[in-house]
Amino acid sequence: MPQVADVSNPAQWVENIICTFMRSPANSLKNVAHDKAWAEPLVGFSRGDDPLYPSYKEHVGPFHWTPAEAFALAFPQFRGGADQLTVISWILPQTEQTKADMRAATTMPTESCFRARIFGEEANVGLRKHVVETLGAAGIAAVAPLLLPTYGSQKSPQFGFASNWSERHAAYASGLGTFGLTDGLITRLGQAMRCGSVIAQMHIPPTPRPYSDHRAYCLYHARGTCGECIERCPVGAVTPEGHDKVVCRAYLDMTKSYVPTHFGFEGYGCGFCQMGVPCESRNPTSNGTE
Known about the structure:
There is one protein chain. The protein has helices at 10-22, 52-59, 67-74, 96-103, 111-137, 167-173, 219-223, 228-232, 245-263; strands at 42-47, 86-93, 142-143, 153-156, 160-163, 177-179, 185-187, 193-200, 238-239, 242-243. By secondary structure, it is an alpha+beta fold. Strand 4 (153-156) and strand 5 (160-163) form a beta hairpin. The chain has one domain. The protein contains 9 helices and 10 strands. 46% of the residues are buried. The strands form 4 sheets. A 4-stranded antiparallel β-sheet has the order 1-2-8-3, with helices on both faces.
């Protein structure tokens, strides 16, 4: 297995790669003020042979890749086991300005929110490529599943449309958060964020998961309270039964005509259920220790 002789703390080394990139000009909303798209990242790790990954095939669908399956798509010659792989997962929190903008919105997202969805995700794509390239230069084979040509979505019997690699599920496995009523991931810095991930042929100790229930950080599921995301959704896509992906997608499609007309660039997005709610910027069930 490739090694990096001069790296005594591979977890810190990888985290520095991620955080340094996000402090660069690549992390931009591409507006006049050159505002950052994302705040400082959170980073976590999970083993490639973590039992959660094969369990996703049962819960999401048989089409959902395990880390070894995704890695083998990029490296068909790979003959090692899943235990040789580490999933590197990160959280990119929305900035305080974008969250403040969205708290005041009621029916349509703000320009900063749309820019975070489009140009912020461009930065996220750049980060995925940068991590893969930096590890490769150090002799470590790595792949970003979302950049594989066969990445896409299929119909899940239980969840409707679902992708063959979920970065939220990778983040959950990597100790970074649990799921809410909206299907979003609630982290210790809240649900207003995006995820990213890379699978690498290296060993990094897994990040402890400070939870045993996949909905532990959601007030509605954990305590039967809150449900403010239900009221925040402008089209009723969030109900006590959960997240209606069809209604949500229809709203997203509608914003595709709104964005160029009002802001002058091609885009779409939402974010109402992530911002202006108790889980926006924190784990609302925490006593301050997480």
